[in-house]
Amino acid sequence: MVFKVLFISLCIFCFSTFEANSQENQNLDTNKTQAVEGEANSNATADVEEKGQPLPNAEQDAKLDPNKLTDIGKDAPAMTPHNSNIVDTLMGITLLGSEWVLWLLLILSVVSLTVMFDRMYYFYRTRINFDAFLEKITPLLNDGKEEEISKICEKSTALEAVIAKEAIASKSKGTAAIEKGTTSYMVRSRTKMEKGLTFLGTMGNNAPFIGLFGTVLGIIKAFEDLSLNPAGGPAVVMAGISEALIATAVGLFVAIPAVIAFNWFGRIVNQKMSNAEAVQNLMMKHYSSK
After folding, report:
1. Exposed, middle or buried, 231 (CB in 10 Å: 0-12/13-18/19+)?
2. Are the C-beta atoms of 139 and 252 separated by less than 8 Å?
3. Is 174 left (phi over 0), alpha (psi -120 to 50) or beta?
4. Which CB contacts under 8 angstroms, 24+ apart, belong to 283-287?
5. What is the pTM of this model?
6. Which among 78, 80, 200, 206 would be 20 to 30 A from 161, CA to CA?
């Protein structure tokens, strides 16, 4: 809702600015036309007075040759359109170049690295050898040694161990309670595990476009520099373009690690969820047979 209000306000502001500029340009054009006509009439009056002829009256003005009026209009200076304020503002923004885009990519890269290290530490802290864990708890479960299983699970913060502990704690309430309790915990754990992955995916998809945007701004500035210094020749443009292409390179440099990390962490999340479902099914199968 907030974005809709901001968008509508921006549209109203742009429309009002456009209307004001259009009215201003129309007034300027009208003033210029009147000034040109006044200058032409003054010149005609001066010519008549120099020749000693009387000034033409209204009846003589009506009989003037239309071709002469056309010739007078041809001698008038051409009117140049005025750029609107919004165009000047946008041009001023584009002439800032690609430096601010590079700073933006640098900040985003720092945030991306922070998310990567945070997820690496989280998954390292909750790691578990799942095959060894199953081999250890399965015979204990068959022998009814649930207390020993709980002690093993308390030593680990892994999702698989927590699911087993939750199932044992809910065994007295039946398999339906075990399923609901473990499923609820799995959903909450998935949200925790996927923390920051949306940002990494967004960075991987959009960082190259941010860099390309900076390159476009740098090229615009390069041609503007050429127009201000024509004597510099192609060297001015090539220097600006080479600097602008750095933004694209930086965008790719930020995006590639983000994509790799997003895919890697996503695979870990899916693997841990599959392991948790396997433990859930094992515990439900055991208690449903009793």
Report:
1. exposed
2. no
3. left
4. 283/141, 283/163, 283/164, 283/167, 283/168, 283/178, 283/182, 284/167, 284/175, 284/178, 284/179, 286/141, 286/142, 287/167, 287/171, 287/174, 287/175, 287/178
5. 0.65
6. 200
Report pLDDT digits (tens) over 229-288: 777 677 777 877 888 889 899 999 999 999 999 999 999 999 999 999 999 998 888 888
Element (DSSP H or E) covering residue 13: helix 2-50
Query: Which residue type does 160 have?
Result: E
Structure-token pair, residue 131: 């095959």
Contact status, residue 172 vs residue 157, Cβ threshold 8 Å: no
Separation between Cα atoms, residue 47 and residue 70, nearest integer Å: 18
List, for residues 207-228, the tens digit of each pLDDT value.
Answer: 999 999 988 888 888 888 777 7
Q: Six-digit token pair at 189? A: 């754990």
Task: Label residues 4-38 b or e (16+ Cβ within 10 Å = b).
Answer: eeeeeeeeeeeeeeeeebeeeeeeeeeeeeeebee
State the Cα angle at 71 between 70 and 77, rounded to 5°.
100
User: Residue 259 in contact with residue 202, Cβ under 8 Å?
Assistant: no
Give the angle 212-214-216 at the CA atoms, nearest 5°: 70
CA distance 36 to 76: 6
- In Å, the largest CA–CA distance within the chain is 132
Which residues, 6+ apart, have CB-to-CB distance to 113 below 8 Å? 257
Q: Which two tokens stand for residue 218?
A: 């740098």
User: What 8-state DSSP symbol labels residue 201?
Assistant: H
